[in-house]
Amino acid sequence: MRIASLVPSATEMLFALGLGDQVVGVTHECDFPLAAGSLPHLTRTVLEPGLSAAEIDAAVKATVGDGRALYELDEERLAELNPDLIVTQAVCDVCAVSYEDVLEVASRLPSRPRVIQQDPSTLGEMLEDIVRLGETTGVTAEAHELRGELEGRLATIHAAVSDASQPRVIALEWLDPPYVGGHWIPEMISIAGGEDVAGPPGLKSPEVQWGELGGLNPDVVVAMPCGWYVEGAQAQTIEHWNRIESLGARQVFAVDAASTFSRPGPRLVDGVELLAHLLHPDLAESPGNIGFIEVRAPAARHSDAY
Question: What is the average per-residue pLDDT within 210-239?
């Protein structure tokens, strides 16, 4: 089977299922595992490079508001790759090529590929997507095995912290303007032994005002700007330190969101393991493969990196 993946989380699932040699094309953002980055890129963003967080937010809102797409699909290259299956998504308008555009392009391809979409809003739905993808690609047993392994890790984390007190957590999925983490993020925090006091579980991440967060009294703030790696998350945390500090949290962390929080794939479980360590370092070890930084005041002069 020849598979085109148009969303990074699906690419990660396909490789985790042992189907990497059948993936013929990916998005420009697919960078894990390393082998995925060398495959032909089928998408590109219409946003200019080098924009600040505020400029990205404004450009996204303007583009979507005008009814224009944020990503372009390389139909010519896709046709050359002759896929049998295209995996895409429709859950997020700003994360990938639109589902409708993919269907339209697929209908014109000589190979007449099957198109499946993955639109999880919870950890459970992400696990179900693994099984469904395995069934579609003929590796059902491997998919159930992977799901069982991930569920086992989640159970281990939950058991390790279940008797501990639950720190109050605010997860910031964007900082300029602020968005709080929705979808699977509150569930991840709960399994890791925390209480998300701002995000709506299973629902779209909402934009908020800093003033709305002021009375929530968090113990921990986790900066996880969507699609950004730890260095960018740290820079955003420092830039907005006065706002974050005013929330009164005893600890503030910047994490590698692109790897383990933004993409609804197997590495969300790595993110839960990391959260458990951040919230309960005496009960849960760091997974060791995820970047995070604890930022301490005054952030502009001092931070501790791990």
Answer: 95
Question: In which domain, by residue range, is 12 found?
Answer: 3-145
How open is the CA angle 98-182-121, to the nearest 5 degrees?
Answer: 55
The answer to whether residues 45 and 59 touch, using CB atoms and an 8 Å cutoff, is no
7 and 139 co-located in one domain: yes
Within 10 angstroms of residue 198's Cβ, the number of other Cβ atoms is 24
Looking at the predicted structure, is the pLDDT value of residue 53 above 80?
yes
Q: Looking at residue 298, what is its pLDDT?
A: 55
Sequence-distant (6+) residues with CB within 8 A of 288 are: none
φ/ψ (deg, to 5) at 184: -85, -10
Residues 227 and 287 in one domain: yes
What are the backbone dihedrals phi and psi of residue 133, each rounded to the nearest 5 degrees, phi first? -65, -40
For residue 169, list its beta bridge partners. Answer: 196, 220
Q: Let me know how long the chain is.
A: 306
Q: Write the CATH number for 117.
A: 3.40.50.1980
